[in-house]
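Margin note from the TA: students keep mixing up input and output lines. Inputs are the sequences; the output is the structure of the whole complex. Example:
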Amino acid sequence: NAGVTQTPKFQVLKTGQSMTLQCAQDMNHEYMSWYRQDPGMGLRLIHYSVGAGITDQGEVPNGYNVSRSTTEDFPLRLLSAAPSQTSVYFCASSQQGVADTQYFGPGTRLTVL
Amino acid sequence: AQSVTQLGSHVSVSEGALVLLRCNYSSSVPPYLFWYVQYPNQGLQLLLKYTSAATLVKGINGFEAEFKKSETSFHLTKPSAHMSDAAEYFCAVKGSTGGFKTIFGAGTRLFVKA
């Protein structure tokens, strides 16, 4: 049982490049989400999904795209990277109940030059 | 709208001393409250959560938190700090009618001195 996995661990992009951050979970969780973590700002929700084929925006969705074709996978796409997207990105998953714990991946550290 | 305020971005204690990390929340509906811990270069993991059962919640590694509705607080405590407690701690809130969105506080970094 690997839990939540994320790839890559580190990535450096140039402004304007696109890339996809991968996230997968093997716990059969319906709910998955992407956060970015910036110093002094905690975690901010980018996008989330309540099941395959269903996604919605969080607090800071601009510049990011998601899709959910399977229960297991929830990739995050940066369409045209900007320096403001330099951050640490975390994927999380949970069961459907509002009190359920979120399980986090180890994170991807992204630098945009 | 829901929000979380963590008082103090950095807290420093001596080994063996009391740990107190403060969290105040704002929610128009009965909240579900969480404390998560993040060790260096890792993701977050759950310490404990309040789900409207007992107001005093015990978590892992000797931590506990008390839900005080009158003060809208959910402070995290540990009687005796250990060097391994050095980490960043996040308070988070979900509303019972807010769907699955979790709102995180800005975090408090705990330093433990020998």
